[in-house]
């Protein structure tokens, strides 16, 4: 995704800023046992891809064989403790397992999104 006058292609400027300012999300995917799972994760966003890493990735069967799979990443919160107005963005993407310096991480390429309250 290239940055242009309306923000990042695929994300509005508000969505882009929202993703850049946060790091806690939940991902939803279906494991090889055909059961849906929702897992809290820490993510990074570089404006083009979302990245997930951590010691659990290489040891957890939930994160095995996700290449080319579609997952959903949900980043949401409340506007403030005084105003209980929900806001967030749900990003659907394709997952690739990558490795760098003997560490495994997931790279998510966004292919769709829905946002509210931003």
How does this model look, in words?
There is one protein chain. With 118 residues, the chain is mostly beta strands. It has one domain: Pnp Oxidase, Chain A (Roll), CATH 2.30.110.10. The longest helix has 8 residues. The N terminus is likely disordered.
Topology, number of strands? 8
Assign the CATH superfamily. Electron Transport, Fmn-binding Protein, Chain A
Q: Which CATH class?
A: Mainly Beta
- Radius of gyration equals 15 Å
Shape: globular
Count of helix runs: 1
User: What's the domain count?
Assistant: 1
CATH architecture: Roll
> What proportion strand?
over 45%
Structural class: mainly beta
In which order are the strands of the major sheet placed?
3-4-5-8-7-6
Q: What is the helix content?
A: under 10%
């Amino acid at each position: 995704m290239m940055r242009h006058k309306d923000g990042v292609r695929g994300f509005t400027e508000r969505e882009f800023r929202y993703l850049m300012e946060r790091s806690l999300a939940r991902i939803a995917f279906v494991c090889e046992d055909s059961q849906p799972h929702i897992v809290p994760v820490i993510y990074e966003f570089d404006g083009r891809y979302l990245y997930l890493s951590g010691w659990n990735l290489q040891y957890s069967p939930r994160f095995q064989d996700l290449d080319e799979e579609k997952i959903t990443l949900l980043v949401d919160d409340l506007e403030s403790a005084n105003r209980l107005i929900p806001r967030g963005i749900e990003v659907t993407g394709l997952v690739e397992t990558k490795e760098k310096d003997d560490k495994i991480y997931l790279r998510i390429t966004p292919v769709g999104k829905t946002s509210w309250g931003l």
